[in-house]
Design a protein that fits this description.
seven-stranded mixed sheet, Aspartate Aminotransferase, domain 2, Aspartate Aminotransferase, domain 1, binds pyridoxal-5'-phosphate, alpha/beta, 15 strands, 16 helices, globular, 2 domains, about 425 residues, four-stranded antiparallel sheet
Length: about 425
């Protein structure tokens, strides 16, 4: 019997149930993944016990020599992986990575440009209830109505009109490769700094399959837990010249002690992403997304921008008479996990939008390939076209549980 099971059966039981859910279902949430057993092991260690305010070699606590080794490895590997001069691996999440850059370069009330949440941006890109929308003047650009690609004419027009201190590129629900050099050109023209938030597609950048924002941006922020497949957390990359200011903002400006166990998980994750297998993984994520997108389009769903060239797609489910909320709930009953999402120029509201967002990073980690994606797409279509028939969802749920049994989950099943 495990220590947790013995001491706290209520929490243990909920965790067991979640392990079952993660293993039996089809995980298609675009921001999720299955981290490796090695990352899980590092994140579950006694490093959680240690206070290490400060940075390697400059700590406010004694006994940090081993934490220094871990954090130095994480920083060095992050720099190698992305070709950066400096990495801060302490932000507790992607949101805090973004906060650290805003606090470093913006004064309260100053203007920055970022992608509209309703067009694929993130809460921390200036949503009115978020600190990023409350502390600063966020001006939003979006995608074009005809092809759902970022409207660079509009970005440039807004930049000239508002003269922002900072331009933010990057998105949570944009199915295409982002042209970072184009953003850099506009930022240069108006004298703005450029921050790229690659939270979603960092794994594709690490694999060399998406243009690398480090080459053109002043600051690059990211999560470590999405396509990069590490522990839940954030990090920031920048040039050496900005290192001091950034580090000072993260600590003591914004956070206390780092989560040393998670920093260890990040070090392991960056090491894994340097391996040739990771490039193969990321290439398979993109192939799988393309095949799944083709399957869904053939079945009558409409995809924002008509398809995908990264790890995710946005499907409009209103052409088949559904809403995003109903689609999410119905798929859930069948063991298929997605999230409802606004589509560009959505006429519906965020809590019941027109679309769903679907990503292939997690299923690809389980080893699924193109044929499996055709099968997954067929299940999605079958369930969505029979929302009133609970029997269909129930039957598909059983089929999926049997199907997924053949694919191991890192950290849950033995390798
Ligand atoms: C997920 C995401 C974040 C924030 O990540 P959290 O770890 O959930 O705070 C920030 N920016 C973008 C673009 C994201 O997709």
């Amino acid at each position: 019997m495990s220590a947790l099971q013995q001491s706290d059966s209520a929490v243990w039981s909920a965790i067991q149930a979640e392990i079952g859910r993660q293993a039996d279902g089809l995980e298609l949430i675009a921001s999720e993944n299955y981290t490796s057993a090695a990352v899980l092991e590092a994140a579950g260690t006694v490093l959680t016990n240690k206070y290490a305010e400060g940075y390697p070699g400059r700590r406010y606590y004694g006994g940090c020599e081993h934490i220094d080794d871990v954090e130095s490895l994480a920083r060095q590997r992050a720099c190698e992986l992305f070709g950066a001069e400096h990495a801060n691996v302490q932000p507790h999440s992607g949101s805090q990575a973004n906060m650290s850059v805003y606090l470093t370069v913006l004064q309260p009330g100053e203007t920055y440009l970022a992608m509209d949440l309703a067009h694929g941006g993130h809460l921390t890109h200036g949503m009115h209830l978020n600190f990023s929308g409350q502390l600063y003047n966020a001006v939003h650009y979006g995608v074009r109505e005809d092809d759902h690609r970022i409207d660079f004419d509009h970005v440039a027009k807004l930049a000239r009109e508002h003269r922002p201190t900072l331009i933010v590129a990057g998105a949570s629900a944009y199915p295409r490769e982002i042209d970072h050099p184009k953003f850099a050109e506009i930022a240069r023209e108006v004298g703005a700094l450029l921050m790229v938030d690659m939270a979603h597609y960092a794994g594709l950048v690490a694999a060399g399959l998406h243009n690398n924002p480090v080459e053109v941006a002043d600051y690059v922020t990211s999560t470590s837990h999405k396509t990069l497949r590490g522990p839940r957390g954030g990090f920031v990359l920048t040039r050496e010249a900005n290192a001091k200011d950034l580090d000072r903002t993260v600590f003591p400006g914004m956070q206390g002690g780092p989560l040393c166990h998670i920093v260890a998980g990040k070090a392991v994750c960056f090491g894994e992403a340097q391996q040739p297998e990771f490039r193969e993984y990321a290439a398979a994520v993109i192939d799988n997304a393309r095949v799944l997108a083709e399957t869904l389009v053939a079945g009558g769903l409409q995809l924002a921008s008509g398809g995908t060239d990264n790890h995710l797609m946005l499907a409009d489910v209103t052409p088949i008479g559904l809403t995003g909320k109903i689609a999410e709930e119905t798929l859930d009953r069948a063991g298929i996990t997605v999230n409802k999402n606004m589509i560009p120029f959505d006429q519906r509201k965020p809590l019941d939008p027109s679309g769903i967002r679907i990503g292939t990073a997690a299923l690809t980690t389980r080893g699924m390939g193109a044929d499996d994606m055709r099968r997954v797409g067929a299940w999605i279509l079958e369930v969505l076209k029979a929302v009133d028939d609970a029997g269909v969802a129930e039957r598909v749920r059983g089929e999926i549980a049997e199907f997924t049994g053949a694919f191991s989950v890192p950290g849950i099943d033995p390798a």
